[in-house]
Amino acid sequence: MAKKESATNKVTPFLMFNDQLEAAVEFYTATFPGSEVRSMSRACVDGPVTSAEFIVGGQRFMGFNGRPHFRFTEGFSLFVSCEDQREVDEYWEKIVRAGGKPSKCGWITDPFGLSWQIIPRRFVELVGDPNPAKVHAVVTAMMKMTKFDVAALEEAYAAA
After folding, report:
1. In 10 A of CB 140, how many CB atoms?
2. Is residue 1 in some structural domain?
3. What pTM value is reported for the model?
4. Alpha-carbon torsion, ordered 14, 17, 19, 20, to 10 deg
5. Example GO molecular function term (predicted)?
């Protein structure tokens, strides 16, 4: 069965922003290939954006400017599967330059409060190994990282 275009998926993440929806949509669509703004609605001609439909990296999102009591938590994050270290570095630096705050284990919070996991595919492959000692070594190395370092993960894997 062929997969439907992601923009027509039945389930769509709906993000409630305080008052930064327009800036967030502009940043996300400029940062990730395969992104576009589908629509933006304003309360009046010169007013702020109140709602938007947008695609980020092929995933459809709906957004709304809510009220200050809406806040993002790490309980919801966006997982970015990166081809290699270069791609990890690229997304990480874009989010940092925009005012993002790095955390641990490949997590970073963007300037709008949304959490992202910037993860190299190689990490997923390494922790999928059937050898528990190798998986443990990779996870232990990852737990010491802020931004993922593919070479260090490979070293931990090889040494186990």
Report:
1. 11
2. no
3. 0.89
4. -90
5. methyltransferase activity
Residue 54: both structure tokens together = 């947008």
What pLDDT score was predicted for residue 8? 64
Whether residue 56 sits in one domain with residue 23: yes
DSSP 113-133: S-EEEEEEHHHHHHHT-S-HH
Please say whether the beta carbons of 55 and 7 come within 8 A. yes
The secondary structure of residue 141, as a DSSP letter, is H
Two tokens, residue 94: 């874009």
Contacts of 108 (CB under 8 A, 6+ apart): 92, 95, 96, 100, 101, 102, 115, 116, 118, 147
**Same domain, yes or no: 119 and 138:** yes
Residues 94 and 158 grouped into a single domain: yes
143 three-state secondary structure: helix
Phi and psi at residue 34, to the nearest 5°: 75, 25
90 and 140 both lie in a single domain: yes
